[in-house]
Amino acid sequence: MSDSPPYGGHIRPTVSSKLSIVESEFLSRYPFFYFIMQFVDYAEILVKAGNGGRGCISFRREKYVPKGGPDGGDGGNGGSVIVLVDSHMTTLLDLHYRRHYQAENGEQGMGALKHGRNGKDIVIKVPPGTIIKDLDSGNVLADITGKEQFLTVAFGGKGGRGNAHFKSSTQQAPRKAEPGLTGEERKLSLELKLLADVGLVGLPNAGKSTLLSKLSSARPKIADYPFTTLVPNLGMVNLGEHRSFVLADIPGLIEGASGGKGLGIQFLKHIQRTKLLLFLLDSTSEDIKTDYQTLKKEIKLFDPLLSQRPEVVVVNKIDLIPKVKKIRMGRGRVPVCYISAMTGEGLKELLNVLKLELSKIREKF
Ligand SMILES: Nc1nc2c(ncn2[C@@H]2O[C@H](COP(=O)(O)OP(=O)(O)OP(=O)(O)O)[C@@H](O)[C@H]2O)c(=O)[nH]1
Ligand SMILES: [Mg+2]
């Protein structure tokens, strides 16, 4: 549980209008894909820092100052490429459309000891939870999680020294200056794994998005058909006493999701970093225990560690059944709540359980 989470209220992926003609045509034919394209969680980019400007060879020439000596200034430094976290972003969509980032070169040094202008840095904004990897070495350079975190991914080349630096007792008129150094160039991959405290897991139509909309100011699409949610949604849930947590709603899972059925398990990585999983079950289903086992199985196949995460089981839609039948989970160790996300029944109790479970986790780590 974070006292000051990196998100503010309701967060939605941004939509870019920069589509190519082919993409626009494709999307007009298959509008379904438009929703998916709004959310991009992987991108590969090429970054190139600016080169340093060369140092200048120049001599002071002034009336009444014979043999004025060397006065060549230094070249400016090349600009660097910096990755900066932007807590308002939730997708790498912008990087999907722009793949090359080149910072400015430094300017050459000039006479009269004038330093060349430094090249401007270029800043690439990414959402919190972005993992940056160097594609050539395979090394992870950073896992950007904080609010104001930044990382220089390619350093600009240093400007060369002008001939004024090379004057010595034996060399009074040096005809030597340094060239600027070349800026770093890197191929990077950026992978987004959203940061949320609690992850909602459920079969399609269980009411995950309804629950998110009731607990936070997020307004995900809700409808009476499976796979309404096509991309993850985040919302901030207020627990009072200056406490809050980020809840993630991801597309529904079905049996065989790990083998690619439905929308597959590609979105599970966005709840991989949560502290707690909230299993949402539909009380009108034939067998809610089987539903729960199906979900657990798919999660385990995706990541065995994720299936061991602390959990809370929530039985939803109790307004639709005449009598609530209590169930036990994990030999009674897993808390079970009974709610109606639609009418709001049981939501207060659920928040209390979540508050308690999150504080237990915080004590542990
Ligand atoms: N009666 C009743 N209906 C509910 C309740 N919660 C959700 N619903 C309805 O169930 C349907 C599915 O709700 P969603 O919130 O879209 O379900 P979801 O789990 O997000 O579904 P996917 O995004 O497709 O995985 C909608 O018609 C909701 O109005 C509830 O507590 N009671
Ligand atoms: Mg949904």
Would you write up a description of this structure?
This protein has 365 residues and is α/β, with parallel strands linked by helices. It folds into two domains: 153 residues, GTP1/OBG domain (Spo0b-associated Gtp-binding Protein, Chain: A), CATH 2.70.210.12; 167 residues, Rossmann fold (3-Layer(aba) Sandwich), CATH 3.40.50.300. The protein contains six helices and 15 strands. The strands form three sheets. It has a seven-stranded mixed beta sheet with strand order 1-11-12-10-13-14-15, with helices on both faces. The longest helix is centred in the last third of the chain and has 18 residues. Magnesium ion (MG) binds next to helix 4.
**Helix-strand sequence:** EHHEEHEEEEEEEHEEEHEEH
Strand order of the largest sheet: 1-11-12-10-13-14-15
CATH H-level superfamily title of the largest domain: P-loop containing nucleotide triphosphate hydrolases
Mean pLDDT: 85
As a percent range, the share of helical residues equals 10-25%
Features:
365 residues; alpha/beta; Spo0b-associated Gtp-binding Protein, Chain: A; Rossmann fold; 2 domains; 6 helices; elongated; binds guanosine-5'-triphosphate; binds magnesium ion
SSE arrangement:
Elements: E1 10-11, H1 21-29, H2 32-37, E2 42-48, E3 81-85, H3 93-97, E4 100-102, E5 122-126, E6 130-134, E7 140-144, E8 150-154, E9 185-192, E10 198-202, H4 208-215, E11 233-240, E12 243-249, E13 276-282, H5 288-302, E14 311-316, E15 336-338, H6 347-364
Bound molecules: guanosine-5'-triphosphate and magnesium ion.
Residues 202, 204-210, 222-224, 226-229, 251-252, 316-317, 319-320, 340-342 line the site of guanosine-5'-triphosphate.
